[in-house]
Design brief:
By secondary structure, the chain is an alpha/beta fold. Helices cover 21% and strands 30% of the residues.
């Protein structure tokens, strides 16, 4: 299984001729979508889902299917995007991969906001994309995608999350708002204190699981 990072929170999972996409938001590179029929969305914010791009792709690809929490699913239906609703506890088959839906709620930014649903996805019991939350799944995770920068996030909390998940390998996502200096700083702390083999993937760079 090959995991490829794209800008910000978007990740692609491939094995042979099977592939799906996680959280292609408004900043994602167009080539991330190549050969993709199935897409998973963690929550409704535009850095994780681009309804206009999905409408255009659905118009050109009758096989396209998006899975997402109810709030964004309704928006995508109105945009004529084929969508199925997912919720924590669901067990899915996505492009032939077993995917467990976990979590449930977006991390709080301030005074209860944004107060929206957020689900994470565990792929084949081994690879975990948490979206915008620090939910620790009951699974033996091998590769963790850790949010590195967000209005709701403190670096110490992200490091604690990496330790709690206990993955053998970790790479950062949700990092588009970091400058080069900010990336270097967060990388140093994750590497030094995360207790996981940590490496940054540049957009388009992959690792094999």
């Amino acid at each position: 299984m090959r995991v490829t990072k794209y800008t910000h929170a978007c990740v692609r999972v491939d094995e042979g001729d099977r592939a799906f996409l996680l959280d292609p938001g408004i900043w994602v590179e167009p080539d991330a979508y190549e050969g993709i029929d199935e897409i998973l969305i963690t929550h409704e914010h535009v850095d994780h889902v681009d309804a206009d791009a999905l409408r255009e792709r659905a118009a050109r690809n009758s096989a396209l299917l998006v899975r997402a929490p109810e709030a964004i699913a309704q928006t995508l239906r109105e945009a004529d995007v084929p969508v199925e609703v997912v919720a924590p506890g669901d067990a899915l088959t996505v492009a032939g991969f077993a995917v467990a839906v976990v979590g449930g709620q977006h991390a709080e930014i301030y005074e209860g906001l944004p107060g929206c649903a957020n689900v994470g996805y565990v792929v084949e019991g081994r690879v975990y994309h948490p979206g915008d939350a620090l939910f620790v799944p009951d699974a033996d995770i091998e590769v963790l995608m850790v949010p590195a920068s967000a209005p709701w996030l403190k670096l110490a909390e992200a490091i604690d999350f990496v330790r709690a998940v206990g993955a053998a390998r970790t790479f950062p996502i949700h990092d588009a708002l970091l400058s080069d200096k900010g990336q270097a700083l967060t990388d140093r702390w994750f590497d030094m204190k995360g207790h996981s083999a940590y490496a940054r993937l540049a957009p388009g760079e992959s690792l094999d699981v």
